[in-house]
Design brief:
40% of the residues lie in helices and 21% in strands. It is built from 5 helices and 9 strands. The strands form 3 sheets. It has a 5-stranded mixed β-sheet. It has a two-stranded antiparallel sheet with strand order 1-2. A two-stranded antiparallel sheet has the order 3-4.
């Protein structure tokens, strides 16, 4: 009889353990998860551009990387029109462009017509936009979802990955110090 009674509590114990693991997972910060590509080159790619038919290759990220005596850093921003957070982030990216920050966009798993309409309505903060319709580049980069931003040095090496929207606070406290260090 005792053994049967104990067996009744096994599902409750399993449920409690799973609940605890789920709760722990909710409290994790995705930015605490390091990118497997940190300090490695941007993966090789050849994908179409949004605004013209020419393919863009990974080497294009290095084009124009030296501005005077300062080494220029590139932000590689993964976005999509279906991403509400990307819409909020877009206004800030326009501000960064006006400050001279080089940003390349990756339109991730999106519709080209929607993306072109988005850019026409909200402005274009990007020097160029890569169309990653099938998500191959995103997969190679280890994208969790949009938006994500990668800081790439003038040698094409990924130095930082930010998951979530890039906003003034994140820029001032995290990304800008990394950019300044890399531009020296």
């Amino acid at each position: 009889m005792n053994k049967q009674r104990l067996m009744l509590f096994i599902p409750l114990i399993i449920f409690a353990i799973l609940g605890g693991l789920f709760w722990r997972g909710l409290s994790l910060n995705p930015n605490d998860m390091p990118s497997a590509l940190l300090d490695k080159p941007v993966p090789k790619f050849s994908l179409p551009r949004l605004e013209n038919v020419q393919q863009m290759r990974d080497e294009s990220l290095l084009k124009g990387q030296v501005s005077g005596l300062k080494k220029q850093v590139t932000l590689l921003n993964v976005w999509a029109t279906w991403c509400e957070t990307c819409r909020e982030e877009h206004l800030f990216l326009n501000q960064l462009k006006n400050q001279g920050v080089r940003i390349i966009g990756v339109d991730y798993k999106d519709n080209n017509v929607d993306a072109q309409r988005w850019i026409a309505q909200l402005g274009n903060p990007y020097e160029d936009i890569i169309v990653d319709e099938e998500g191959r580049l995103g997969l190679d980069l280890g994208v969790f979802g949009a938006p994500e931003t990668y800081v790439i040095d003038n040698q094409g090496i990924i130095r930082y990955k930010h998951i979530g929207d890039l906003n003034q606070q994140v820029w001032d406290t995290v990304v800008l110090p990394i950019v300044k260090q890399l531009e020296i």
